[in-house]
Amino acid sequence: MRNRQLALDAAMTLLAEPGASLTVEAIAKRAGLGAATVVRAFGGKDALLDAAVSRLLGPVVQRARDLLAEAPPHAALRAFLRELIDFQTAHHAVNDQLGGLDLPTTTALRADLVSAVKEMIEGARRDGEIRADLDPAATTTLIGETALAVARAQPSTPGLVDTYLTVLLDGLRPPTP
Amino acid sequence: MRNRQLALDAAMTLLAEPGASLTVEAIAKRAGLGAATVVRAFGGKDALLDAAVSRLLGPVVQRARDLLAEAPPHAALRAFLRELIDFQTAHHAVNDQLGGLDLPTTTALRADLVSAVKEMIEGARRDGEIRADLDPAATTTLIGETALAVARAQPSTPGLVDTYLTVLLDGLRPPTP
DNA sequence: TGACAAGTGGAATGCCCCTTCCACATACTC
DNA sequence: GAGTATGTGGAAGGGGCATTCCACTTGTCA
Questions:
Q1: CB distance A142–B149 less than 8 Å?
Q2: Residue A125 and residue A146: Cα distance in Å, rounded?
Q3: For A76-123, what is each residue's pLDDT tens digit?
Q4: How far is the CA of B49 from the C1' of C27 (A)?
Q5: Exposure letters B61-89 (e unless 16+ CB within 10 A, then b)
Q6: pLDDT per residue over A47-61, tens digit each?
Q7: For the ranges A63-67, A90-94, B17-21, B158-162, which has the lowest average pLDDT?
Q8: What's the CA–C1' distance between B39 and C20, in Å?
Q9: Chain centroid to CA A39: how far?
Q10: What angle do CA B47, B53, B55 make, to 5 degrees?
């Protein structure tokens, strides 16, 4: 169904536009369709958002898996956080407007992402690059939220994201006695 | 006006209850009043929330000023962040549900708070306890968001908040060559 | 105690938004 | 080319919510 794709593209576009209204009507208008058509194509607004967000998030999760396979854990973590922050910077709406919704596919993807990051953290901890007194699960949550924090604090200054990453990862290093 | 106080108390209570509905009706019900009375007492829902949030935030800002006067900047920063995280943990709604609203008094208070934290950071940087390659303004934003991140990542495990604070402040330390 | 002012809250109003309906258009089938 | 199946979108339906209205209650003062 071609309209399905049009609606999906429109939703993905709006998710990347800061402050854009995510009403069905706005999505339909952007797609050049009627609101009824958009809703029918997905069975409801939530299903449409679920599909759109998943499309955006999927490659991010894949990238986490790839980095985990390619690089040592701590390097993978740094590289991935860099990309995650870029993604979150470009898609504030994904994090800010979708809090209270139940989007099954998105939730599953997020769980995948969390588990990949957790593996990075566990690996880095085994390698002695992350302090041992931190619970990996809690640290994963903290790092995820912190990445969001950096995206929100978003410096227009280029290079500052890397500085922040250094701050975060230095903090996580085992204390030098 | 007694009802004004009742409404204010009810709103403050609900702001501290995770997941509570912040509709006028819910606030009125909690206060034992009619919705019309609550709205009339403040001239609108936003004004009520502005008043309630300001009441909650005011002491926090005052505490920042006090600590700044009492303790050296870096110690003040650590102590204040500890209290800020506690506050945010107990009042998720203040940060999560009020994003898109225009609350003038609250906005002014927040600016006060930001400026107090900025002073702490600048002082700590002068004292060599925070790396010099960080822009104080951007760092202030980052720290604010990070405090929120910690509150969200909220460990039930007691003492973990302190560990996270250590992580953050260690990261901000000048790198040891 | 009676008359008037102020305050109150259930109901009505209006707005926003998702969803459903239905008259119409378009695409297939024979 | 007529007839049916499928798709479309403007408009109506319906729920949630802030705000306003107004009949009524409460308080005040002479």
A1: yes
A2: 18
A3: 999 999 999 999 999 988 988 887 788 999 999 999 999 999 999 999
A4: 56
A5: bebbbebbeeeebbebbbbbbeebbebbb
A6: 999 999 999 999 999
A7: B158-162
A8: 35
A9: 25
A10: 105
